[in-house]
## 1
Amino acid sequence: MDKYDLIVIGSGPAGRRAAIQAAKFGRNVLVVEKGGRVGGVSVHTGTIPSKTLRETVLNLTGWRERGFYGRSYRVKDDITASDLRARMHITLDHEVEVLEHQFARNKVDTMRGQARFTDPHTIEVEGEIGEVLKFTADKFIVAVGTKPFRPDYVPFDGEYVLDSDDILDLADLPRSIAIIGAGVIGVEYASIFSALDVHVTLIEPRDTMLDFLDKELIADFTHQLRDRGMALRFGAKVEKIEKHGPGSCEITLEGGRSIRSNVILFAAGRMGATPSLNLEACGLEVDHRGRLKVEPMTFQTDVPHIFAAGDVIGFPSLASTSMEQGRIAACHALGETAYDPPEYFPYGIYAVPEISTIGMTEEEIKERGIPYECGVARFRETSRGHIMGLDSGMLKMIFSLKTRRLLGCHIVGEGATELVHIGQAVLNLRGTLEYFVENTFNYPTLAEAYKIAALDAWNRMPPLEE
Ligand SMILES: Cc1cc2nc3c(=O)[nH]c(=O)nc-3n(C[C@H](O)[C@H](O)[C@H](O)COP(=O)(O)OP(=O)(O)OC[C@H]3O[C@@H](n4cnc5c(N)ncnc54)[C@H](O)[C@@H]3O)c2cc1C
């Protein structure tokens, strides 16, 4: 039986970073991955495929040029599902190659197969041809991620009624799609399909979507979706889902409203991928969504030598945060110095248009009773925006009236997920309004919107006390 200092279960963003960090400390590490290739949901069914799909759609449709050439402008007229898949496979191969190289370079052992605990320090891994190997370790990091939630009332068939894994294998582009769940995944796919001129109906039992975002941003985003012809059916539960034949699906909502579409994407929630781990053998329990509870600063579970990181511990369930959690968990597991996870991290929602945000929303600031002022810039006010033909996009910053510190930065529009990092730096370094007013920005750039928004707030803020 092989013995390791650390065994990491799962090779997604959390597992990968944990393993490499541990190897850099000179420990011997094994990563066990049950998927065909390393990389996790992030590389194979989540972040990277969906973002590659988005990029391909924006390129082939000519979406970014429509501000100049009109809504009917197209780069390619008949976009097919195989056009969309081609670029995805190339990107995924590169990602896997880089990751395998990182593991090899850092001398991280990898084992393909499904891991299950047999006692608190031992796992059993079933290989491809049914062979069973045992491994022990002093420490473990569970980074098994999540799987799409598939409730019984949804007649999934992998062809017309799909989850967010199946959608990547669509044989043909549908003419219409109904998407259930207006969370990040649902909203991203809804806006991507709508950019492809597929008729989209987005269904959400709650009255609102993406509640954790600033409301002014969501109002702007919602307006853009409606303006493109997307149907939003909010505030009604799904009562029934029926398939009447190939490409003919029907959803009945509470209250009787019915929605017909070629394809349905069910994107309402994910479950921790913990059932296969036999966690009883190591004394761990999961919650109703299959997730593990950890100590928020160290990522230690209730069993002291077992740590957990990434989506399996729940919120915020991002590849970006999972990577940091994996690294910090490895430091704590191995008794090395670790930094604390930052209080504020950015959220990137790769819808069309992009949304990105960091810090407090206006609603949270009001709730906390902090006196504040907002500054808003529209991308069409910037020269870069004119050059790019942008007719939408906004950046909003919120400052404390008392300290003039930046409290929140919220962006919707082209480049939002990159632009937000300027706001992130100022916010986490406790910078104030003066940073934006007093510094020179490259011109012409969309980053100029920071200066415009800061000046907008400055106009209404009391002068800086000497
Ligand atoms: C459609 C979609 C789009 C997304 N877009 C973004 C985005 O734009 N930005 C962002 O930051 N995040 C995004 N995410 C979230 C992101 O993919 C996840 O936060 C991230 O993948 C979580 O990483 P992880 O390491 O926790 O787990 P995962 O990436 O889920 O990896 C877990 C791995 O563990 C393996 N495993 C499970 N059980 C076992 C076992 N018993 N034995 C061995 N191996 C096992 C699995 O096969 C898997 O490879 C998206 C997710 C989805 C679904």
Note: The chain is about 30% helix and 25% strand.
## 2
Amino acid sequence: MTQALTPAEELRGVGLRVTAARVALLETVREGDHLGVDAITSGVRIRVGHISIQAVYDALHALTAAGLLRRIEPADSPARFERRVGDNHHHAVCRSCGAVADVDCATGQAPCLTPSDHHGFAIDEAEVIYWGLCPDCSTARSS
Ligand SMILES: [Zn+2]
Ligand SMILES: [Zn+2]
């Protein structure tokens, strides 16, 4: 349902001020594929001209906190951002080149893994990352 909204409407919907930089940032992340901060900064600059890295970080933080962006941070790799929020999808990450692909949750809802012992915790999420080699990297290794 959020897909039908424009970036400006989405910003207003979560009570954030609509700025050219925030709109450009949402468009950049939507068109990209799990982009990191550098790629997002270039995309925003193409759209609105100069913007400091700090302003991009601030906007990313505000939009992530408001639930418009999801931040993923695979171990040893810089944070990436995506627009696909509000579902329990996971990611496959290439150990070699860092490529990221979405993987739908097998059960569709969190937590999709049942802990063998919950130690009294009320568990509400299991963070799953599938690690391996992407098709390009596995082809390169075997040839
Ligand atoms: Zn790869
Ligand atoms: Zn994703």
Note: Helices lie at 7-13, 20-31, 37-48, 53-65, 135-142.
